[in-house]
Amino acid sequence: MLPASWGSTGSFPKLPTLALAYTPLSGTLPASWAQNGSLPSLETLELGETKLSGNLPAEWGSQTAFRRLALLSLGNTQTMSTITGTLSQLVLSAELWC
Asked: Domains (ranges, CATH) in the chain?
């Protein structure tokens, strides 16, 4: 399970890459990771080949979330979402691997 607390303001201020692919992670993607100021340096988020499930949180598409994100990898997971509304902003600013 991905800890929601990692989304606390100022968490991992210098972390450019979070690579958790090919791990036994399960659960859903925390909306808290998109809070203003959390994971401010994150450029690459690799979550593919895990047992994560559910929808991409709409908060992940907010203008203050993942400002530097260039790659979001969710291939071979059970995550899903319709890319509309705020999530379209995330897709426009990052490469999405599904």
From this structure: 4-97 (3.80.10.10)
pLDDT per residue as tens digits for the range 10-66 = 788 999 999 999 999 999 889 899 887 788 899 999 988 988 888 888 888 887 888
Measure the CA–CA gap between 94 and 28, rounded to whole angstroms: 20
In order, the DSSP letters of 26-90 are: EE---GGGGSTTSSTT--EEE--SSEEEEEPPGGGGSTTS-TT--EEE-TTSEEE----TTHHHH
